[in-house]
C-alpha cells in the first residue's frame, strides 16, 4: 500500500510510507556525505543511514548533520579500537555486561546494574559504556540492528544517580547510537524512582514511551513481558529466569577478548554493502576537514534539541560517579532537562 507522505515545513517528511521513498532519502544523505575514509564509509551503510533518518523524522539535512557529528566523533574517539585490557577494571562488578543469550528476536542483551558501580572516573565509565555498545552491535545477526537493555534495580538508591555521568551518557547514546534500542526493561524499580520517570515521560513521544517496560517480579501480568521476550531457561534468575550462572568476570573476560579479535575484521570488510563509496587513501584524521564533517551549515543550531529522550532517561539509571543525595529529589529532575530532544 502506498500513501502520500505527510510533510512539515520544519521537520520534512514526518512519515515515509514506501521503501522507494525511504531509499531516495538514504541516497540523498549519501550524496551529501560524499567520499569517506574506509572505516567511516563502512559505518554509513543503508541501514545505518536509515537509523539517523528515523531519528530525525526522515529530514535529510538534520539526519546528515547528526550523522556527520557521529563520524567526527568516531574518527576522534575511535570506539571500535577500545579493547578489554583498557576497560577491564570497569567491568569487575558486572555493572554493565552483554549477556550470553539473546532475546527471541535475536537481539543482543545488555544487562545494567547501577548499584554495582565501582569507579569514580566519568571518562572511564563512559569509555566502558561505549565498549559495551560496540560489542553488542558486533554480536547482532546481519538482519538485526537493535538491542535489549535489562536494567536491574536490586540494591539501587539515589546515590547511584550522577548528574555528570548521566548527561554525558545521554549525549553519547542519543547522538551516536540512534535507533539501537529495541526495548528497555526496568526490573523492580523502587517507588522513589517513579517521580523521576513521571518527569521524564513528559518528554517522550508515544513511540519512545512504548519501548520502556516496567516489570515487577511479584506481578504476573508484567512478568509475561519477560516470557514473551525471552527463553526462561536462558534468562538470568535475577530477572525471573532459570539461568543461575550469574556474572563471572573470568569467563566474561575470555568472551570479550575473543570478541576483540573479531572487531578489526568487522571494520575491514572486503566489500561495503550499500554504503558510501570509500576513499581508501584518505586517513580519518587527514580527511575530516576536507569532508566538511565539522560543518553545521546544513542544519540549525537547535537540531540538538531533537535527540533521543529515551536514552537520556535510561542513562540516568546507569552506574554513576558524582552522586545525588537521597535528600536531593530536585537533583533528579535536573537530569531530565538537558538541551537535546529526539525520538528514540
From TrEMBL:
<feature type="domain" description="CRAL-TRIO">
    <location>
        <begin position="84"/>
        <end position="247"/>
    </location>
</feature>
<dbReference type="InterPro" id="IPR036865">
    <property type="entry name" value="CRAL-TRIO_dom_sf"/>
</dbReference>
<feature type="region of interest" description="Disordered">
    <location>
        <begin position="1"/>
        <end position="21"/>
    </location>
</feature>
<protein>
    <recommendedName>
        <fullName>CRAL-TRIO domain-containing protein</fullName>
    </recommendedName>
</protein>
<dbReference type="InterPro" id="IPR052578">
    <property type="entry name" value="PI_Transfer_CRAL-TRIO"/>
</dbReference>
<dbReference type="InterPro" id="IPR036273">
    <property type="entry name" value="CRAL/TRIO_N_dom_sf"/>
</dbReference>
<dbReference type="InterPro" id="IPR001251">
    <property type="entry name" value="CRAL-TRIO_dom"/>
</dbReference>
<dbReference type="InterPro" id="IPR011074">
    <property type="entry name" value="CRAL/TRIO_N_dom"/>
</dbReference>
<feature type="region of interest" description="Disordered">
    <location>
        <begin position="295"/>
        <end position="344"/>
    </location>
</feature>
<dbReference type="Pfam" id="PF00650">
    <property type="entry name" value="CRAL_TRIO"/>
</dbReference>
<feature type="compositionally biased region" description="Basic and acidic residues">
    <location>
        <begin position="301"/>
        <end position="315"/>
    </location>
</feature>
<dbReference type="Pfam" id="PF03765">
    <property type="entry name" value="CRAL_TRIO_N"/>
</dbReference>
<dbReference type="GO" id="GO:0008526">
    <property type="term" value="F:phosphatidylinositol transfer activity"/>
</dbReference>
